[in-house]
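Supplementary Methods, section 5.1.

A reviewer requested that the exact input to the structure prediction be made available. We therefore reproduce it here, unchanged from the version used in the analyses.
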Amino acid sequence: MIPIRDANPSRTVPVVNYLIILSCTLVFLHEVMLGRQLEAFLFQYGLVPARITRPGVAQHFGLSELILPFFSSMFIHGGWLHLIGNMWVLHIFGDNIESEIGHVRYLFFYLLCGFIAASIQVITNAGSSIPTVGASGAIGGIMGAYFVLFPKARILTLVPLFFFFTLIEVPAYVFLGFWFVLQFFSGTSSLLSRAEQYTGIAWWAHIGGFVGGIVLLFVFRGGAGSRR
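The structure derived from this sequence is encoded token-by-token as follows.
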């Protein structure tokens, strides 16, 4: 299912959300211009779990070099489709969360969701020496918060039916609940088969971000309840 838009207009201008989208876009344009230096850039600023979990490797890096990728990796993307897909979902769901908790809090909320997602990725894929990049973990946190705050908001969704596509409106709890279940089963399957190292999809980062977003929402908002 592909979200097209939500019928839930924001009460404020989502300045921070726009800045995050702009930042990710500018970073990606920088990646495009790196040429042969791109691989070194990804290994420097992407999250490499083995660099943290293997003492023999970690000792060659300073503390800042080990911590920075937990945050920098969420602004890096692996291709145009990766970037556009993530930014589109962030555009749909992020503005309402920013409106609810405020601009400054939203920035810290986003970064902490990304940090939690990255931490879960390191734990569940500890031996990987492949850089993990993308904003999807942090966006998962935004989706988790939306799930709690706006469960009945209508999401216009593109749904494949055999060889055709159709547009339907579904409640947010249906769309986001389906998304989370899909991530959970895919993540569980990847742990059993170690498929993640071949597919390159950080399922557990998505799951960790979603759950982290729900937990953090209560901290940032102080007893969050659903809204119409």
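The radius of gyration is 18 Å. These observations are discussed further in the main text.
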